[in-house]
Amino acid sequence: MWSAQDVARDQVRRQAKGLDVAAVAEKVAEAAVRAREPAEQLRGNGSFYAFEMDRERLAAVWLAKHAEWRRVRDLMTAAGWSAYEPEQDAQGSVWAREREERLAGALAAQAAFRERRREEADELRTEVRLSAASGRLIRAVSGRTGLRPCEVLAQLAERIVVGEDGTVSVPPFTPSL
User: Fold this and answer.
1) Cα-based angle 9, 28, 6 (whole degrees, multiple of 5)
2) Predicted pLDDT of residue 48
């Protein structure tokens, strides 16, 4: 879900908070060294990002971190900031909001998917073989209402009433779209 740039921007934004220009310059130099290392030699820094097991992905993140640290350094220098404050970084704030919106959207989609799965677990799918007479009745109702035969049967099933003595009945109704 997160690109190497997303990960780098998020990490740099959090790590840079309160750092002065000299400390940011050190981070630029460190990222430059790490970005030049062969992917096989890269190791994670203990963060919680699962991609750190993938060395190619980690190499891409270090390249993106190097670019982001340079951007922060250049911004601080141009603006004359003594320390980096994420709230003052307009572009970084836009990116952070976009990440939060994508995360919220992904979480909402995941919740909707789980809800659909729960509903599907309660659904009953079955194949019904009706006698010729019953089949003709269902097809006739289907033809008059514009519903498919399975939709007529579904509406019948939704209206089933079970009596106290176990009898099953369906009160009169008109199938509808």
Assistant:
1) 10
2) 43
The model's pTM is 0.58
Helix (H, G, I), strand (E, B) or coil at 161: strand
Q: Are residues 5 and 88 in contact, defined by beta-carbon separation less than 8 angstroms?
A: no
User: For the chain, first and last CA: distance in Å?
Assistant: 40
Q: What is the DSSP letter of 37?
A: S
- DSSP 8-state assignment for residue 146: T
- The answer to whether 173 and 159 have CB atoms below 8 angstroms apart is yes
**pLDDT averaged per 10 residues in sequence order, the chain, 177 residues:** 88 95 94 81 53 74 94 95 94 94 93 89 83 94 92 93 95 89
Residue 128: CA count within 13 A, CB half-sphere: 15
In sequence order, the 6+-apart residues with CB closer than 8 A to the CB of 151 are 142, 175
pLDDT at 132: 95
Amino acid type, 103: L
d(CA 170, CA 57): 61
